[in-house]
User: Fold this.
Amino acid sequence: MRKRYGQTVGYAALLTALASGVHAQDNGPSYTFFGTPGLLEMPTAESAAPSEIAATLSYAGSGGYKTSFTYQLTDRLSGSFRYASVDQYGIVRPGGGVPNTYETFDRSFDLQYRLTDESRYLPAVAIGLRDFLGTGRFSSEYVVGSKSFGSNLIVTGGIGWGRMGTQNGFDNPLGVISSAFDTRPAYVDREFADEPGEGNGGTIAANSFFRGDAALFGGLEYQINPTLGVKAEYSSISYPVETFTPAVDHESPWNFGVTWRPRPGTEVSLAYLYGTEIAATATFVINPTDRPTLSGLDPAPAPVRVRDANQRAALTWDQAKQPEPAVRAGLTQLLAVEGIDLLGLEITDRTARLRYQNNRFRSEAQAMGRAARMMTQIIPPSVNTFIMEPAREGIPLSATTLRRSDIEALENRVGATDALLSRTSFGAAGSDDGLVFNPVDGPRFQWGIAPYMALILFNKGDPISADVGLSFDAQYQIAPNLIVSGRIQQSALGEQEPLDFFDNPNDYVNVRTDTAFFGRHGGPTLEHLTVTHYSRPGENLYGRITAGYLERMYGGVSGELLWKPVDSRLALGAELNYTMMRDQDMGLGFALYETTPGTRDRVEVGDYDVVTGHLSAYYDLGRGFQAQLDVGRYLAGDWGATFALDREFENGWKIGGYVTLTDMPFDDFGEGSFDKGIRVTIPYDYFVGTPSRRNVSTTLQSLSRDGGARLDVDGRLYEIVRDGHQADLTDTWGRFWR
Amino acid sequence: MKSIFKVVAALAVLSACGPLNENSAAKGFLGVVKARLGGAAATGPAQPPLSRAQADANPGAFLLVTAYGGNSVASLVMGGTNGNRVTWLSADNVTVTLENGIIVATRGFPRDLIAAQVTGIREALAAGGGNGSRVHETLDGLDQISTELLQCSIVLDGAENVEILGKVTPTRKFTESCRGETLAFSNTYWLSTGGAIIKSSQAVSPGTGFLQLERP
Assistant:
């Protein structure tokens, strides 16, 4: 029975979905050139569906390129990150006419909050900040209202400040509250700042919010049919000729556009902007909660084998009939079908304890369900209690106690998911005593060769480029908890110029910005080569020691200890690393280089070694939010703290952000002032459907610089350990029976 | 940039290999592409994987299941029994669990019926018509159980001859119309004169659609 889920939609349509009730406008808001829900340049008060992520690429002749990501964080709050490549004016001198323009690259963040919902007579109202954290070239604040008339027309009007207060601007009405609102501090570009520290951006320019002139904007959006819509707006951005502002050919505040949405999640639009030019955008929307592979394409599990009344009545294990080695060997084979390794087994008359490692399923709950089904096939019938001990990297994480009679009674029953969960207890994994361990059948060597592609973002003059080539991976498992692992890559592009990120004129070692010179010589690069040992020194304690070439730029030793009870929302960790900077050829050597001013040659000047470490607190806030605080010393020797907040979806998606503040002065840090970023993790099975433990993680840093930089060591404990703990098991408990 | 895309194209031809790359992105992606292409290329209904002779040699041992609107047919054998529920399984890891001929669970489909409670349906079929109710559980995109309550009415649709693997059987045809808050569907059952469901078309879920079951 081949599964062709690509075809299923048509047949599924035979089942009428009554709840859809889709109106023309319910295909969600359309997107602006800034990648936010709205008109063409102006926002509307609309919000996307909760959790939706929109990626927008836009281009206009003089407006430049913009790549934006907008995430609907909650029903009302959305955040955007944008990378723009635009021409901007140089210094405007009195009587100097229009200054020369030059290309610049700009990163910016937006926030929008919907204050009120649309009602019968009143519009939805939203308040927003555009480019409130970047260098400020587009910085604006606004309040906007949108009201729909019928199901096809939305009318929007609003008031803007900052850049959005430049078309027919008038005195700030907030001036009646305080005269402080009357004037807006001028924007300063860091490259031309008089004082060090001015214009680095990255800090919240709260002292200019809602200051200076204000202006009105408005527009209409009409949906002709479900796929085609038209928009018109009166924009309040006039793009005046000012020093270091975007050089846009602006003759008219009227913008017009056509949107085409051929299918849900895809929008293409064409527009006539500024009375001067044609512009185009493409937007792709994805919602982590809406899995394209539905429940997944997992092969069916084995049906539960139900004991008859006589078997159930047995109180003792008939070892003559079912000797332990035979049961263990049989179960090992059955579990192998599910990609599960049997590490150890303990059978008594009434209880069987299984320690296992799941190598296939993202959800440990699903792996546990599969393992329990297999146990019903072969475990002696007198056994009525299954103790499941999932392990990772050879370390047992927890013990889940299930009753075999519950598994028999609840199979395929409505309510079985909740019922089983309520009858199940979670606790700390037991000791090794009593377990009969499967012999590790020789050290296990695994290898793989695969093409790789590494995206390189924010390289000057080439905002998105890629390195591609072949990677060779090898892994050697000396024991389940002692692993040697390495990766060598060979770029297919040959020798390449160093990346051109930015100059870094400060007294700190270029602990991260030197990455521009790493692995660009065209030869093979050793990405990592480590030996890692995992341990469980106490009931709720986990340990890791990693030594070797830890990452692209550093080698050394990294040690970590984590305290995490099975049922606790809180975990505490400590990490200590001693590392040295590797040679930029990414071979076996260690060296520090410096760039000679003028010739740009790289000269070896010695070594750089540093002790870094953090104390960490992890807290599961509930409702899918996870917080982490790390306090300690970073690679450049700077001291500080990192705070991270992630929205985690039960299906494995994670979307979060972090900020790091250290004692490195903002001036020394450079553009951006401090390290911050957005990170996304997408599980493979979301797209591919078949079960997999892999995922893809990406961090969009506004700028990767030397302040607040951390060692990038693999196998940190928290993500490994939490998988088998109560909260994570409960999150995907729906997969236990699948 | 041009050179990069050339290399990407060249590398894409190279498939990932080695045990570490099972389930890798490259393989998974290629798998999806292959599945999509394969699916698109398929034309006409698939052939039943069972002969009349095989069916007659093992009476009652097989369940023919047709899925995806006739594009996929499999012959299932009994894999396990739990009370009055029988789980049938196919060679390629799909299972269908029946309670007196009515689907109460599936596994291995894109949107499985995780569990179902069918009350009064079988009785109404036996009585020549009547009402019943259903509770259907599916697994949503966030791995949470989603529950649908449905009210159903069963009516006799007349007599019909049903042919399965060349054997024609006279049957009474019933239609079961179910309606819930977000879902509505109609199932069809063909009952032999002895009252056995020898053929049926039953809804599993949006996303999987209907399964046609036949007892050869």
